[in-house]
Amino acid sequence: MDDTNKKFNILIVDDASKNIQVVANILKQEGYQMAFARNGKTALSRAETMPFDLILLDIMMPEMDGYEACERLKKNPETKDIPVIFLTAKTDKESVLKGFGLGAVDYVTKPFNAAELLARVKTHLELKLAKEDLRNSRDQLQELNATKDKFFSIIAHDLRNPFNALISGSDMLVHYFEELEQEQIKEFIEEINLASRQAFNLLGNLLEWARSQTGRILYSPEKISMDEIVQKNKDLLEQNAKEKNIHLANDVEPDTFVYADKDMIATVIRNLMTNALKYTPYGGKVTITSKNAGDFTETWISDTGAGIGKEDMDKLFRIDTKYSTLGTANERGTGLGLILCKEFIKGNHGKIWVKSEVGKGSDFKFTLPKQIQE
User: Fold this and answer.
1) How many structural domains does the chain have?
2) Per residue of the chain (374 residues), what is the pLDDT tens digit?
3) H/E run at residue 46
4) Residues 222, 364: one domain?
5) Same domain for 212 and 242
6) Is the domain of 70 the same as that of 128?
7) DSSP assignment of 118-166, as one string?
8) Number of neighbours of residue 325 by Cβ within 10 angstroms
9) Whether residue 181 is found in the same domain as residue 239
10) Do 206 and 301 belong together in one domain?
11) In whole angstroms, what is the distance from residue 322 CA to residue 316 CA?
12) Could you tell me the pTM of the whole model?
């Protein structure tokens, strides 16, 4: 017996318990896991709640026959990819073609021939695995292409912008310093300072992201204080907040701990706080809070900024989309920071999401475990 067969889960549907018993005895010798249903309605319910790899479906059943059950299975996005083999005594051409037309992949005639049944089941399980492998490979390729496109986009465009500002501002100071008023000189220096910060933050995220893609970031979880990490990043970004007269508040309780990689979570906090400050107008407020959530600690960064539309919220954490808007002081962003946050939170066994309303601000929330995760 092939041990890999043990993972396959098959649903057998027949209104005759004797037929179910015969099929189950044949499949049992190959180590397949099985579940049973005596009618189409029960079969649909079980298929929606359990992950089946194959369904063996009788055609002639009361109330809901196999044709209708198959049709409903194929219309449901949750069950449409489960291969269906009809169990039938009807071998006329019209019945067989009708079954294929509704999405069935094969049929086995009654009375059952054990060798034939096993061969057909094995063939379609192998085909399902092959399709899943092909789908996974396609998804991985799409993600790799999206990652490559994102990387070159940042190099070609986003990284160019702050350096253009640096060069133009410094050129003005070099060539026209003697002719410039004190206030003009200050403006150019502020422009250079802002562009330098943008380039530094972007390069930092770019390097962290590149390391995460190549697997060079070591995951070293430990018990860490969320209050301590938030406070250190608050101190780091306090000047950014003062420049926009934003009240930056750390409301995390001192005894709030999580079990995670300290450097990764510090990067997450810094990126989320930076974003909040970027999109909060002058005189606004950014608050960092944590609360108990069972086996996890939930932390969120709230701002009184511009907010995000529903149509854009799904784009925020995706590598294959471009979503970036100017901050309230024309600060530029790439969206890379949020992608990095998602990867780091996921790598620490947590979840991250956003709640936002246009004109009222945003809440970026994430969870982290309190204890070691196996």
Assistant:
1) 3
2) 444 444 789 999 999 889 999 999 998 888 898 999 999 899 999 998 888 999 999 988 888 888 999 999 999 988 998 999 998 877 677 877 888 898 889 888 888 888 988 999 999 998 988 888 888 888 777 766 766 666 665 565 566 667 877 888 898 899 888 888 888 898 889 888 877 877 777 777 677 766 666 665 677 889 999 999 999 999 988 888 998 999 999 999 988 999 999 988 998 998 899 889 988 999 999 999 999 888 999 999 999 988 888 877 777 776 655 555 655 545 555 557 788 888 889 889 999 999 998 888 999 999 999 987 75
3) helix 40-49
4) yes
5) no
6) yes
7) HHHHHHHHHHHHHHHHHHHHHHHHHHHHHHHHHHHHIIIIITHHHHHHH
8) 13
9) no
10) no
11) 8
12) 0.51
Nearest-10 Cα torsion for 259, 264, 265, 270: 170
Q: Which domain holds residue 343?
A: 218-374
- φ, ψ of residue 124 to 5 degrees: the values are -80, -25
Give the domain-ending residue among 200, 217, 234: 217
Kind and range of the H or E element at 250? strand 247-250
At residue 241, φ and ψ (nearest 5 deg) are: -65, -40
Residue of 47, 94, 111 whose CA lies nearest to 73: 47
Indicate the residue type of 226.
M
> Which domain CATH number covers 349?
3.30.565.10
| Domain co-membership, 239 together with 226 | yes
Distance CA 137, CA 139 (A): 5
